[in-house]
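Morning, I've got a small favour to ask if you have a moment. The fold is given in discrete form, as structure tokens running alongside the sequence. I'd be grateful if you could look everything over and explain what you see. No rush at all, and the record is pasted right below.
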Amino acid sequence: QVQLVESGGGLVQAGGSLRLSCAASGSAFSLNVMGWYRQAPGKQRELVAAISRGGTTNYADSVKGRFTISRDNAKNTVYLQMNSLKPEDTAVYYCAVGPNIATMGLRRDYWGQGTQVTVSS
């Protein structure tokens, strides 16, 4: 069983920054890839960024150059540093894990509870 605990969401003005954290517990197999999805009202959930245990990263085009994903393998924690935030970044952000990118979020326990990020214009 995987457990994910997220923190760091909130309200920020456009151009500001926020840092999300997600502390995970579970098997190394399940935590091989860690990342963040987001879902805005009326939109589908989308992958924002992911990082493998070895440090390989993937980013959505919309956040490249503004967001940075990192992880501390010793703490099983993944971070998302979000800079130059825009109103269109407003969404619920979900931590997700999995053995690889294709299977992130495959099981119910591979998802965090979500944290709200609101960017005001």
